[in-house]
Amino acid sequence: MEEVPAATPCVLVLRALGLGDLLAGVPALRGIRRAFPRARVVLALPAALEEAALATGAVDAVFPAEAARRGVPSLAHWPGPPPDLAIDLHGKGPESRDALAELAPGRLLAFARSDPRPARWRADEHERERWCRFLGAYGIAADPDDVGLPPPTAASPAPGAVVVHPGAESASRRWPVERYAALVRRLRGTGRRVVVTGGPGEDALVRGVAGHAGLPAREALCGGLPFGELSALVGGAALLVSGDTGLAHLAVAHGTPSVTLFGPVAPDLWGPPPGSGRHRALWKPGPPGDPHGDVPDPLLMRIGVDEVAAAALGLLEGSRDQEPLPSWPPSSASSASSRSPSA
User: Fold this and answer.
1) Closest CA to 243 of 231, 221, 260
2) Which residue from 286, 231, 234, 236 is spatially nearest to 260, judged by alpha carbons?
3) Are 46 and 76 in contact (CB under 8 A)?
4) 15: closest CA among 183, 140, 134?
5) Please, which residues bridge with residue 259 across strands?
6) How far apart are the C-alpha atoms of 169 and 46, rounded to whole Å?
7) Could you tell me where the DSSP H helices lie in 65-104?
8) Tens digits of residue pLDDT in 113-140
9) Which of 174, 225, 305, 331 could form a disulfide with 229 if both were Cys (CB 3.0 to 4.6 A apart)?
């Protein structure tokens, strides 16, 4: 991170997770940004997400921090004096709280503490609402619907295409290759251009779906697109079809119609805003499974190709203009008054 004047207050936020977690945390980050407009807001998360984090307009800098299997990273390499305020948006702690506490911040906000003001952690709460409620307990107003990202500045590699994204961090959230391929064939049969994309390390998966579907090689977007190009791809797409992963949140942020296949985690916890006609969340209720499991979840496997194709074609036949897009620039309404990070 570049040097800044010593008199500038610093707010350090920990959310060292994935792309979907970052985007689900945007409403909370915007609330923090509005509450402390004169502070330098630094977000601790994996370095690979720096471009995405800065694109939110809610943070000034990124502090690279990550740990294997979504664990709590060490923050011992923090380069400056103790932050004036540290905020734990990583989890319910105490590990994440303790990692921030080791930096001796002027003040620390976390679920895992004895302070009587914070709201209690609720396992049945949607991720966006959880962190906005948490901040509200400290007088920091945040709107869980404040999810919009600025229009991409890069050119889309496939403008107007249907984007199919079969990848996910864990196998439990990956629908089978053969089903994605069958869906691609159905969509192409209507005359639509379809491209398949994946994240870093998912080239074999992307080529597998494209190969089974008979797609030309140029429609298999391999290599893990940099965020700017990925954002442009999703923002300029006619539709996104994916599992419960970061691209589904990116579609919501850009107002791109989407079909998201859920399992083992319910859309009530991680899905698009309820009641939106622009986004379809497919879900078969049942006992919750392991979101980090190494085989496709049984609830996900209950979703069939016909159901996904019907949802996708229904959105493609509709209009993107039937409801408002996520607002940009984000509204400053309902923000807390300006304050010092140590207040």
Assistant:
1) 260
2) 234
3) no
4) 134
5) 241, 280
6) 15
7) 95-101
8) 656 656 789 999 999 999 999 999 999 9
9) 225
